[in-house]
Amino acid sequence: MSGVVALLAPTWRIAFVRADGRPWRDEPTRPFIYAIWHGELLPILCAHRDQGIVGMVSEHGDGELLARIISRWGYRLVRGSTTRGGGRALLAFVRELRDGQVGMLTPDGPRGPAGVPHAGVLLAARQSDAPILTVRCEASRAWRLRSWDRFMIPTPFARLRIVYGEPWRPEGTDQSALEELARRMGPP
């Protein structure tokens, strides 16, 4: 997979914008958490490589492949997910945020359903006092895998728009906070 991405990514034309269309330049004050739908992970990971961002990656087999790829891209990893090693991984992730690091989570991962957030990102935000910054990717052309998340692989020479929401601090981790996160992220 990393070989395919190494061939494709240099051909992509990427624009970084705010949700209102203005250019996106400044990150919020650290720490903060990028929240990304699982299916849009690949182009966003490529766009943010070599920034030392901390990501939580599943301990499952598919997570191992992702861990190898993104560690080569300069990401720092915490291993675990909602289904395996989650509590330990969440504590390690929160520690990284408290130390001023930028984190990245997929609220609908590792197994979905797509576009339905789980509470992990809300818990991390509440325990670390780090705001959540939603990030989406729009592609002019992309292949979509037949997986639960319809994983996106932008085609050669695709135009990508990486779209950033406003930083948000959830007031809780209940159903209304999950619905607010889903609203802020938009449909996958």
What does this structure look like?
By secondary structure, the chain is α/β, with parallel strands linked by helices. Helices cover 31% and strands 23% of the residues. Strand 3, helix 3 and strand 4 form a beta-alpha-beta unit. Helix 4 runs parallel beside helix 5. The radius of gyration is 15 Å and the shape is globular.
Feature tags:
two-stranded antiparallel ribbon, 188 residues, 31% helix, alpha/beta
Question: Going by CATH, what is the homologous superfamily?
Answer: Tetrapyrrole methylase, N-terminal domain
Count of discrete domains: 1
CATH class: Alpha Beta
Q: What is the topology, as strand order, of the major beta sheet? A: 1-9-6-2-5-3-4
Estimate what percentage of residues fall within beta strands: 15-25%
Summary of the model, kept short:
The chain has 188 residues and is α/β, with parallel strands linked by helices. The protein has six helices and nine strands.
What's the layout of helices and strands?
Layout: H1 2-8, E1 13-18, E2 32-36, H2 41-47, E3 54-57, H3 61-72, E4 76-79, H4 86-98, E5 102-105, H5 120-128, E6 132-139, E7 142-144, E8 152-154, E9 159-164, H6 175-185
Parallel strand pairs: 1-9, 2-5, 2-6, 3-4, 3-5
Antiparallel strand pairs: 6-9, 7-8
Helix pairs in contact: 4-5
